[in-house]
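User: Hi! I'm a student and our assignment asks us to look at how structure tokens line up with a sequence. Could you show me two examples?

Assistant: Happy to help. In each example below, the sequence comes first and the structure tokens follow. Example one:
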Amino acid sequence: MPYNLAFIGFGVVGQGLTEILLDKKDYLKERYDFEWKIVAISDLHKGSIYDPEGLPADKLVSAAKDDDLEALTTPEAGWVPFKVIKESNADIIIEVTYTNLDDGEPATSHCRAAFNAGKHLVTTNKGPLALFGAELIKMAKDKGVQFRYEGTVMAGTPAISLALEGMAGCEISKIEGIMNGTTNYILTQMEGGMDYDSALKRAQELGYAEADPTGDVEGYDAMAKVLILANSVMGATLTAGDVDSEGITEITSEDIARAGKEGKRWKLIGSVWKEGGRVLGRVGPEKVELTHPLASVMGATNALTYTTDNLHQVTLVGPGAGRKETGQSLLADMLAVHGALGG
């Protein structure tokens, strides 16, 4: 039987996932025995539609680009997210609304509603995991549903599943990495001769940085990922107040040049480590030796180095953003749900 999917939010990432599902429909059936149909979408700007028998998936992306999902003929329209979550026949809720690192809403309430309704949930939304990760992970377990969130750290690059599944049995004592592609791009451009303002402007022109880049350049985005890794991989219960955070706005061209002469390179590093029975976290600019695994990671690429007992250091490098790259994380999460349910 196909899984019934409901999207809460249908922006770039949701559309990217839909394109992947359509492109790989036969492959997913043959390789994983995974079948699907999209039964509902509820988006604040694009509208809300529901058909328990399945929506016309091939028409959803074009309708979304016109900001008019409700132009499609469906049995039901106008359902708010909580009605979709509670009353639709969806098996898996795909939560891809906007990230809110202040209070995690409305995504956190969407997660709780799905768990209470006995539905599995996959998300790329950092807000709920960064602010309430330990609580939500426990709630999903208590309710007997799957909760997957691979895309919250490095988009489709499997940062979380590598730690929890690929290195199962290893004790991870430290995770450090380049968790924000925007700042890494800016620092790379500064090393090439640009000043900070010019590098930031170029990052905005390329779509790496938002019009308001504060979340990236002040380290808040990386801090959220540090919290997610601390609480999901290392079993901590850290909050934002537990993580010292500093961005890159004070780094000058002179600092970049001086580091180069020292055989080092500036990177914005997010770190999580165990010390004296505690889990600690930090985000800040660091001068890393050119021999360090993270030093060669340039541009908008992300990377994480795990320090473990059995494997020593393992470094994962890959994209941390992108339409299909992030959509891939949701696909991987759904396949993990499928596997966990015996598929």
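Example two works the same way, sequence first and then tokens:
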Amino acid sequence: MSKPKKHSIIKKTNLVQEQPIEYKSKSEIIREDVMSELLEKLIKKGIEQCDRGETTPHTQVMAEMKIKHNLKF
């Protein structure tokens, strides 16, 4: 009767990982709420601009970036 290999047992137990617990202060939670509201307002503004046709085509933006930043791709 052979003995089980110890290293194979050790390898398997090292695979178990606990999820990190993230604690947030009260000020961080409040800040996230404010940022969520701001982000929502900005997204709505962007959608309204798109609906009014106030957009710039991607090809035009890329052409302007290439010129402005001297990019060659």
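Here is something you could point out in your write-up. The radius of gyration is 27 Å.
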